[in-house]
Amino acid sequence: MSRRISILGATGSVGTATLDLVGRAPEGEFEIVALTAHSNVKALAELAEKFRPEIAVIADNAKADELADALKGSGIETAAGPVALVEAASRPVDWTMAAIVGSAGLEPSAAALQAGSSLALANKECLVCAGEYFIDLARQRDALILPVDSEHNAIFQSIYPGQDKFIRKITLTASGGPFRDWPVEKMKSVTREDALAHPVWSMGDKISIDSATLMNKGLEVIEACRLFSLPPEQVDVVVHRQSVIHGLVEYIDGSVLAQLGSPDMRIPIASALSWPERIDTPAERLDLARIGQLDFEAPDKQRFPALRIAREALLAGEGATSALNAANEVAVAAFLERRIGFLDIPRLVSDCLEQLDADHALPQRFNGLEEALRVDRLARDRVRGQLASVSA
Ligand code: NAD
Ligand code: MG
């Protein structure tokens, strides 16, 4: 029997990697219900022609006619705007890939869980901004959250069912990003191109910048605590430049289990797509003799303050982590537009958190998704205000 699936953020790096695997599956194995994208009509229409979903949705309202024209006569339903996106995500399916970038993914991902779909979660922002809400919702709907972020997927695979209560700590590996060996003086003049040139992984722009500041690892520590119900002190980070080991779980008896594989997102995506079974992937096989050596080192907290800022936010609670994420999204977008320098990113985020904390605007726990989105908007406005005053 074919499985009904939807892919939110189908045109992105994770979305296209997911469709690559779906395209390799035997005919009839998957029936695609919804494919969605932000504003690239051409890319979405091409994927829709190839994968024949029930509906294709473009989040940008202004692109409604363009998408309808592009798919005219195809028999594929089209829709546009954030409300249509949530409606499409709510259509009954067995499995949904949540691969929208940023907090724009919160409402559609929540809608999929609400409808009872298993949620393959690439969009770490869901757990960073509203972790309790998502974990509770999955529990209430008896729906699985399958982590797609490679480190979390590795840890998920390394926990034998029922043994989570014996975990002493988990470790997320970090490649260290393109500036892992750069002196701080040189980091001041990093360009957009330098920061987008990730040494190991090929990813969307936003997460590539986050990997360069190590904010990505900070967001992942928060994601891990919420996903695996662990306190911050039980989640470690180690820089491992080859990105061969993705995550490790240490148990109370001293056993450490880990998942290894070549750095190709199709491996964790395949794990989530086929769980609890396995499927073949075209990913490069791991050849340890050729790799020869695996290196590990502690992250440099001085040169990469984002990791510390994220840990402080985690201790402060959900309001702080939601604000951290929103402030970072705005700062990264400004860096990508060449409006601010690389080292301004963590500084803007930290300033925003300090201000909102002083205003008592950051609740320790949220009461529902709307509250998380309210803090998200507040933090965005704060950073935009700061950017406007800098450029004025
Ligand atoms: P990407 O930028 O390549 O793709 C993002 C997708 O989201 C696109 O389809 C885009 O059209 C859509 N989108 C963007 N803004 C939107 C909006 N406002 N409304 C609706 N749709 C919108 O990003 P990516 O690298 O594929 O990452 C997606 C998510 O997966 C992120 O949360 C990222 O942190 C996470 N992730 C990615 C990787 C990776 O290797 N790329 C690894 C781990 C986790
Ligand atoms: Mg990751």
Automatic annotation (TrEMBL):
Pathway: Isoprenoid biosynthesis; isopentenyl diphosphate biosynthesis via DXP pathway; isopentenyl diphosphate from 1-deoxy-D-xylulose 5-phosphate: step 1/6. It catalyses: 2-C-methyl-D-erythritol 4-phosphate + NADP(+) = 1-deoxy-D-xylulose 5-phosphate + NADPH + H(+). Residues 260-381 form the DXP reductoisomerase C-terminal domain. Keywords: Isoprene biosynthesis, Magnesium, Manganese, Metal-binding, NADP, Oxidoreductase. NADPH binds at residues 11-14, 40, 123, 125, 204. Its cofactor is Mg(2+); Mn(2+). One of its GO terms (molecular function) is 1-deoxy-D-xylulose-5-phosphate reductoisomerase activity. Mn(2+) binds at residues 149, 151, 220. Residues 5-131 form the 1-deoxy-D-xylulose 5-phosphate reductoisomerase N-terminal domain. It is an enzyme of class 1 (oxidoreductase). It comes from the Bacteria. Its EC number is 1.1.1.267. The keyword Membrane does not apply. 1-deoxy-D-xylulose 5-phosphate binds at residues 124, 150-151, 175, 198, 211, 216-217, 220. NCBIfam families: Dxr. Belongs to the DXR family. This is 1-deoxy-D-xylulose 5-phosphate reductoisomerase. The gene is dxr.
